[in-house]
Amino acid sequence: MGQDQTKQQIEKGLHLYQSNQTEKALRVWMRVLEKSADPAGRFRVLGCLITAHAEMGRYKDMLKFAVVQIDTARELEDPDYLTESYLNLARSNEKLCEFQKTISYCKTCLNMQGTTVSLQLNGQVSLSMGNAFLGLSIFQKALECFEKALRYAHNNDDKMLECRVCCSLGNFYAQIKDYEKALFFPCKAAELVNDYGTGWSLKYRAMSQYHMAVAYRKLGRLADAMDCCEESMKIALQHGDRPLQALCLLCFADIHRSRKDVQTAIPRYDSSMSIMTEIGNRLGLIQVLLGVTKCWMIQKELDKALESIEKAQELAEGLGNKLGLLKLHCLCERIYRTKGQQRELRDHVVKFHECVEEMELYCGMCGESIGEKNNQLQALPCSHFFHLKCLQTNGTRGCPNCRRLSVKPGYV
Questions:
Q1: What is the CATH classification number for the domain harbouring 163?
Q2: Where does each TPR repeat begin and end (predicted)?
Q3: Which of 337, 360, 383 corresponds to the end of one domain?
């Protein structure tokens, strides 16, 4: 297959893919991969296959094609191709919750400075790295990466990247319980979709609606949460987007649990768990198991709750997800207090505080914890964040956390 024919077949596949004929598109692209002798065409078709498999939640296949793409990039001996292929490798590992590998590949991308493509891709690299740091509950570094990605988006007038970063920032603030910002950022993403998204994939609209649903639920606005989640799920079903279907099912389950309707929540958790297991989203599985645990606790089935916690703890330890572990210790504390088991209770109280210290989840001004309840937070330029009221009350000449870190042990 020659260069022109390769190009035609890739375009044919893209047209089929955009018309929701995904399996036909994949067959066309696989044929190009088998028959084309043009390395640049092969590189491009591998990019199409990587994107398609990412959206279908076939993350192991996504990774497989990313590895082949790296070999093709080396064959082409072009740093631009190499940068793009390392980004795809980073994104594949991010989807598979291999966060340390994601960070490592992102750093490789950022070290390839100076190529034209790398300058355009740096925003996406920063976003992927931010998502990985968030998966590891390293909040300051996550925020630093998201803000860097946002600067790249603004400098390059890249509205699609800005939309994706806003959704990640919504997720970030939902995790540390500043629910006002958790809603603000996906609403901003939805505005970008409305203003600029005529030619965009509907996944951007679905993504913003899902993150809005999460924030609305956290704020107790359950009817609004349900409306947004239903719209997101409708698009996810139309496009065969399995990862988003799993997240929407989790959100539906959480909404029903918030209404104390455990009987409706449990089957939705089960459906979400089934898809999360199928696609390999272990971070999502932790969230599902946390929800299931809370359902058992509502029904006072404490032994069943502890079984769910045990499964979630194994996953959280494997991923290095410290926030998941903190939440699990908190739930254990409540269960063992109810059971009157003092030794186990004390053990989890100690572990809970160790997690808080490790994640620096406390305000450097008042010393109170962050992420325990809904609170307005404010980040300084260094990406350390504090209670907004503390910054307003005390003011600051620079960051107190950074000042503490700059004092060498022995000089205190």
A1: 1.25.40.10
A2: 123-156
A3: 360
Q: Check pLDDT > 90 for residue 385.
A: no
Six-digit token string for 91:
């994104």
> What's the mean pLDDT in 112-127?
79
Joined together, the tokens standing for residue 380 give 């300084």
Torsion angle of the four alpha carbons 156, 162, 164, 168, in this order, in degrees rounded to the nearest 10: 120
Q: At what angle do helices 282-298 and 302-319 cross, to 10 degrees?
A: 160
Report how far apart, in Å, the C-alpha atoms of 402 and of each of 30, 216, 365, 406 are.
Answer: 52, 34, 12, 6
User: Is the Cβ–Cβ distance between 286 and 312 less than 8 Å?
Assistant: yes
CA dist 205 and 102 (Å) reads 26
Which DSSP helix (H) or strand (E) runs through 5?
A: helix 3-18
**369: β partners:** 362
Distance CA(264)–CA(226), nearest Å, equals 14
Return phi, psi of residue 377, to 5°.
-115, 160
Residue 398 lies in a domain: yes
Q: What letter does residue 362 receive in the DSSP assignment?
A: B
* CA-based nearest residue to 153, from 124, 180, 189, 177: 124
Give me the domain span that covers residue 350: 276-360
Q: Percent of the chain, pLDDT > 70?
A: 95
Average pLDDT over residues 388-407: 73
Q: Which two tokens stand for residue 175?
A: 């995790």
DSSP state of 369: B
Give the Cα separation of 90 and 112 in Å (integer).
14
Cα(45)–Cα(33) distance, integer angstroms: 7
Q: Which pair of structure tokens corresponds to residue 114?
A: 């100076």
Reference 102, options 70, 75, 136, 78; nearest CA is 136
Residue with tokens 């079984």: 307
Is the pLDDT at 146 greater than 90? The verdict is yes
What's residue 411's pLDDT? 38
The residue behind tokens 């989840």 is 361
Residue 401 forms part of a structural domain = yes
Q: Is the dihedral of CA 142, 132, 273, 299 positive or negative?
A: negative
CB of 153 closer than 8 Å to CB of 122: no
Q: Which residue has the tokens 């939902």?
A: 174
Say which amino acid occupies 205. Answer: R
- Confidence at 221, pLDDT banded by 50, 70, 90: very high
Number of domains in the chain: 3
Show the tokens assigned to 344. Answer: 């186990």
Q: Within 13 Å and on the Cβ side, how many CA atoms surround 284?
A: 27
